[in-house]
Design brief:
There is one protein chain. This protein is an all-alpha fold. It has 3 domains: 33 residues, no CATH class; 126 residues, no CATH class; 144 residues, no CATH class. Helices cover 78% and strands 0% of the residues. It contains 13 helices and no strands. Helix 11 runs antiparallel to helix 12. The protein is globular and about 65 Å long. The two termini are 37 Å apart.
Length: 312
């Protein structure tokens, strides 16, 4: 009996799903299959590794290389990345614009990371802004937003939003209203990002960017609420967290965005566990709780993924 016949019998007996059957059949027949996601992941990690190596080299060998050489080199790399993108990019459009080359998005992302490394190096060496150093974050975020929209790059948009979040936290943590409380800042920032994404979507400006805004907003809001539950143990905060997690899970299932289901489940589990630890006493009961609950969470996620999961 051939391997193809075995696979057909397994599919008929529902030992494997139709999707698994198609994948295994393609392997048996030595057909081509896509490794697009794997290549993208490797390129992304490669870009991050290169940027990290550049930053490490600048820090460790500044005495032998010299400040001017490092600054000029980083500027050339950044300018080269931007020139590469400008010379190959299609005209700007409010709609989705496909990357002209496979490496286009990663070259732009590398340029942005190199720019961040250069800005950090300049401030570290020369202290140009002193206590106002957070303005670097704001200026960098503005640059990243402009590049993200011009070149239709969600990687850079995520970098822009995270940089803006850092500035938001530094700036507001010093204000009397927030009194250094990062959880309220995270919630406020998440709400602001979500509102900005929805507003741009309604204006039909890069509508496909909305999901990136919502990813950042969901994590910021849920992290802030979970942090409040862990630190304060308030039932009111826990109720707010569970409501927000429920909204994330429901939206993820409705729109086939499994990542939001994961966000909701993980943050809800963190909040419930923080509350449970105030009830359970003794190593055995705590171990039993985490063993059973973690297994239930993983099993639940697997079932939901099979039912509504979508390749993202």
């Amino acid at each position: 009996m051939t391997a193809e016949r075995y696979l057909e019998e397994w599919r008929t007996a529902e030992i494997i799903t139709a999707e698994q059957h198609a994948l295994l059949l393609a392997l048996v027949r030595r057909q081509r299959f896509s490794i697009f996601l794997e290549l993208n992941a490797l390129l992304y990690l490669g870009v991050v590794a290169i940027a990290g190596g550049i930053a490490w080299t600048a820090e460790e060998h500044v005495a032998s290389i010299g400040d001017p050489a490092i600054i000029v080199s980083l500027t050339i790399v950044f300018a080269g990345c931007v020139w590469y993108c400008v010379s190959r990019a299609a005209p700007y459009s409010h709609e989705r614009v496909a990357a002209p080359t496979f490496s286009f998005d990663y070259v732009l992302y590398l340029g942005c990371l190199v720019f961040a490394a250069e800005v950090a190096f300049v401030e570290y060496r020369f202290r140009l802004l002193g206590d106002a150093w957070d303005n670097y974050l704001l200026a960098s975020a503005a640059l990243y937003v402009a590049l993200a929209y011009r070149f239709d790059n969600r990687f850079v948009l995520s970098l822009a939003l995270s940089t803006l979040g850092a500035w938001f936290g530094v700036r507001l943590s010093a204000s009397a209203f927030f009194a250094g409380s990062m959880r309220e800042i995270a919630i406020a920032y998440g709400a602001l990002v979500a509102a900005a994404g929805v507003a741009a979507h309604r204006q039909r400006i890069k509508r496909h960017f909305l999901e990136t805004y919502l990813h950042v907003a969901a994590n910021a809001i849920l992290f802030g609420l979970a942090s409040a539950v862990v630190d304060r143990g308030s039932t009111l905060w826990l109720a707010a967290l569970l409501a927000a997690c429920g909204a994330a899970i429901a939206s993820g299932i409705r729109f086939r965005r499994f990542a939001f289901v994961v966000y909701g489940v993980v943050y809800a589990y963190a909040g419930i566990s923080a509350k449970a630890l105030t009830i359970f006493h003794g190593d055995v009961s705590v171990l039993a709780y985490f063993t059973i609950s973690a297994a239930a969470v993983v099993a639940g996620l697997v079932l939901v993924a099979r039912w509504c999961g979508r390749e993202e």
